[in-house]
């Protein structure tokens, strides 16, 4: 069997207010860990170290099964910079493969001081447009804690509809949102780990 063709991700995506820079694990893992600690601080007592952030990004990299038979060059994650690539980091957006048997989920994190200003919608819209139209992905979902009203509002605005639920350890049952026409999920059959599958 031949090796899958290596995909090339755009190094930059641009919106009106943001420059989205493709994550480079060596260059960006420290900022990624810091941002995750700010966003998730106190939720489960878990501390994101550089090693844990690197493991997570490696494990969540798309496999050919979820990427049209292509080999991903690395994590499908973009750091969000205000204005230019040298502007402050406001957060990140990416595709997470929790299992090769489940479509990837879009995830986004914004630092608290940049929330409620439309940056999440702006970044996620450009990001999804790139992966849905430029790459032709058809199956992407979003997993949201039911009480996270901002994220629910955002994924609905992006065109996702309620598509069941899944168990994502360690957080428990999450609401799953899918693109129209996608298969729905069931917490009885969809049990995943925040770490994805070790690669």
Approximately how much helix is present in the residues? 25-40%
Between the first and last Cα atoms, what is the distance in angstroms? 20 Å
Beta strand count: 9
Instruction: Give the class from helix and strand content and strand pairing.
Output: alpha+beta
CA gyration radius, whole angstroms: 16 Å
Order of helices and strands: EEHHEEEHEHEEE
Largest sheet: 5 strands, antiparallel
Give the neighbour order of strands across the main sheet: 1-2-3-4-5
**Beta-strand percent range:** 25-35%
> Helical element count?
4
Mean pLDDT: 90
General form: globular
List the helices and strands and how they pair.
Layout: E1 12-14, E2 18-22, H1 25-40, H2 50-59, E3 76-82, E4 89-96, E5 105-110, H3 119-134, E6 141-144, H4 149-157, E7 161-169, E8 172-178, E9 191-193
Parallel strand pairs: 7-9
Antiparallel strand pairs: 1-2, 2-3, 3-4, 4-5, 6-8, 7-8
């Amino acid at each position: 069997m031949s090796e899958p063709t290596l995909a090339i991700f755009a190094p930059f995506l641009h919106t009106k207010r943001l420059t989205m820079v493709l994550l480079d694990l060596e260059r960006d893992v420290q900022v990624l860990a810091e941002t995750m600690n700010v966003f998730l601080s106190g939720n489960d007592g878990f501390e994101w170290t550089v090693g844990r952030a690197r493991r997570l990004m490696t494990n969540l990299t798309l496999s050919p099964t979820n990427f049209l038979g292509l080999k991903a060059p690395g994590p499908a994650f973009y750091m969000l910079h205000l204005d230019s690539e040298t502007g402050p980091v406001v957060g990140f957006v990416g595709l997470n493969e929790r299992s090769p048997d489940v479509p990837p989920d879009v995830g986004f994190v914004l630092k608290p001081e940049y929330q409620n200003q439309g940056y999440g919608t702006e970044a996620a819209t450009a990001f999804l447009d790139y992966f849905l139209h430029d790459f032709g992905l058809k199956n992407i979902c979003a997993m949201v804690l039911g009480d996270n009203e901002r994220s629910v509002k955002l994924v609905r605005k992006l065109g996702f509809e309620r598509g069941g639920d899944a168990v994502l350890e360690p957080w428990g049952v999450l609401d799953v949102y899918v693109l129209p026409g996608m298969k729905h999920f069931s917490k009885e059959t969809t049990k995943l780990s925040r770490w994805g599958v070790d690669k």
